[in-house]
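Fig. S4 source data, part A: sequence.
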Amino acid sequence: MSVVLLLFVAFRLSAQQDTAHLLPSVTVSALSLRTTMPGERTERFDSTQLSTAQHQSLADLLSSQSGVYIKSYGLGSLATSSIRGGSASQTAILWNGLPIQSPMNGLSDLSLLPAIIADEVTMHYGSSGAQWGSGAVGGVLSIQNKMAQKGMGLRYNASTGSFGLQSHQAKMQWSNGRLSVVSKLFTSKAANDFSYISNPDLPAKKQTNAAFEQRGFLQEFYWVPSAKSQISVHVWRQFNHREIPPTTTQNKSLAQQTDHALRILLQAHRIYKKHVLQAKSAVFGETIDYQDEQIGVRALSGFKTYLLELEDKWQFHRGWQAQFGAQQTWYQASADGYNDTLQEVRSAVFGNLRYERNQFKIQLTARQEWQDGRAVPFMPGLGASYSIFKDLEVHAKLSRHYRLPTLNDRYWRPGGNLGLLPESGWGIEGGFRGLGYSLTAFHRLIDNWILWSVAEGQVYWSANNITAVRSRGVEQRFTYGKSWKSKHLRVITGYDWVRSTNEIALTRPKLAAGEQLIYTPVHRAFMSMDMGWKTTALLWTAQYTSSTKGINEGLPAILIHNARMSYGFQQRRWGGHCFFQVDNIFDVSYRVIERRPMPGRGYRLGAGLRI
């Protein structure tokens, strides 16, 4: 029904004519009307950063070149994010403006999101519930696709490396300015049989039952009926199979998991004299098949998400813009842990009022959602920025945030709790940026934090609103870039200090009031240095993570270095590159999740061609 409605809207948008002037701030390729809110800190990954990560996942990209803390279970295994001391389910993952995380557990596995899928990646830090809805508490990861430039092109990348790693990516695109076709294909696999040390007094062990395989494609079609309208269709199909290795306290594991995902998105927009109207419709589906023949378990689960969204941006006076929108979402999920197939309906209306004049920007945003007809907390937000000088800007933001309980939180048997309240609270941040340096301080309080624990008198884990969490910290970034003659140098550094503490004493799990949350480092720093001469480039990255507390044991601090050298060449109509990469240069033995070893030093060799 939603797809039919969008097709009708798209037809009407393409059929209507309007000869008035275009909004100067909007182009036909801008498919996301909700831009960055003033006062919000963002990190954008440009084409250079994305091109060097084409053979990797977004988890690898964020871990090496941002302040996002990636909680990884190992190469090819589950990887989730923690932003500003938040949980993994407090990060919203958007694909062309629509959320793709699972309604069952609120997560999206970043290791299953290949970097080649994205044409643009933006990390929005801080609470954005008024903009994007439930789950946008710690931050928002935005993945965008763009229409190809006029002409025809072909790219192919291949690489091989340690632990049986093989990876291939291809991108084909064609455009005549009115029609555009983009095809992306990817595949990767690895035996993942690296050696690790579990006990300094014993010989090294080899990782077993750890192979993974991933393959899929993204197919996109763009149609530009006029200079003021665009319609596009996106189809993302993906298959993943991975073995789940034993922990360092297990002798053997036969567990494995197969994931299938299909995401279809249809969107259209039309530019008028003072309006931009946009419509989107999508169907997202995922299935998970978990098996462990060692204990005779097979668990099937999956979900489907249907979305319909309409937005209108209106420039009604000089410097003033208003935006209004509505979103309707239908969820359907099934699992062995549910009594029956579940359905949920969420509705939302949202809007913002923005003023820009000279060096000053301010925006008021609001959102109201309903879950199965019941109103959830009203979400307001206010952000502003002011450029004092040409190279010095101050900014601040105040917003309310919330996260609705997931389907697992409410319906899983045993342990689900139908009486759960949404996690909610307020966040404030402020800082300045200029001359390549930025500093942002933030404070956030979340009440009714949902935590799975063993309550008194129970023998199983259950979901409850049993604590509150206070997060505060300081984020610093410094960027320096210089080009001269045939040389270039770019350095990006960052340091985050985050205190995210439990405010209510707990016994199971044992957490004292004021104690740092588990798997939440206080200190995190990173550095990325890209230098080159003519067609030769060297990229060096380093990431430091302070010690963290796990569920059963502590994890020591980590300092990991990676390096990549590449050489490019260009002929008349074609070109290419080759590269050599070393990960974990100093062969550090470490864990991100307790009892889950990470690989030591590894090598990767690859090449690419473009026409």
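Fig. S4 source data, part B ends here. The mean pLDDT is 90.
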